[in-house]
Amino acid sequence: MEMGWLWDFCQGMVKPALALVVVLMAIVMSYLQRLGLEGEMIYSIFRAFLQLSIIGFVLQFIFSQENSAWILLAYLFMVCVAGYTAGQRAKHVPRGKYVAGASILAGTAVTMLLLVVLNVFPFTPRYIIPVAGMMVGNAMTVTGVTMKRLRDDIKIQMNLVETALALGATPRQATIQQVKRALVIALSPVVDNAKTVGLISLPGAMTGLIMGGASPLEAIQLQIVVMNMLLGASTVSSIMSTYLCWPAFFTKAYQLETKVFSSD
Q: Which residues lie closer than 8 Å to 209 by C-beta, 6 or more apart?
């Protein structure tokens, strides 16, 4: 009786196991085309299975607890992983992992706090953890792109930035165009996704609710909230990352830190 949950889990994994047929198809096609991706495909699917299984048991445990500390712990863990991943993308930005982590934390925390205060979502694990996961994941991608693009653009236009600094501009004034370009490029996919949501494809949250038996109208209402929070969290996180990057790009004398831009 005590191991009944394990039997239920194994029964539930029958359909995911059957879905591996499409992965097998992809592996065969990769082999026939000599792409050399067969091993990576197998590894990625195995890793996804392992990670999702573990997180499923962890969430099952957290959902059964009444202590809010578990919510905060899960949220901070997601932020740390996201900060590390985004920092890896912007690996030439000094202390990039810390900058990315702080930016993601700021953007998602402010957004989540507003949603809770406005009573859009109750502060319970079943709502907050999935919501936080969506926001953190989206903010991670946008923040990583913003930091990398900002550093690369300043490197390409170093002469222009140095000329502006020589004429008395502050670091912000000298790099305002690069900052704007980095933010626009990073946020454009989020904005475009909001424009086309429901027209090209049904988003994950909405699809999950409909497949779970919820009314399409209820699913739409939740998806609107999701799109709003993703746009808000991503914007705050990306803008915050530009402010936190500046100290590493310039010296105390308001000159470009050339060693930051010397590596490829």
A: 218, 219, 222
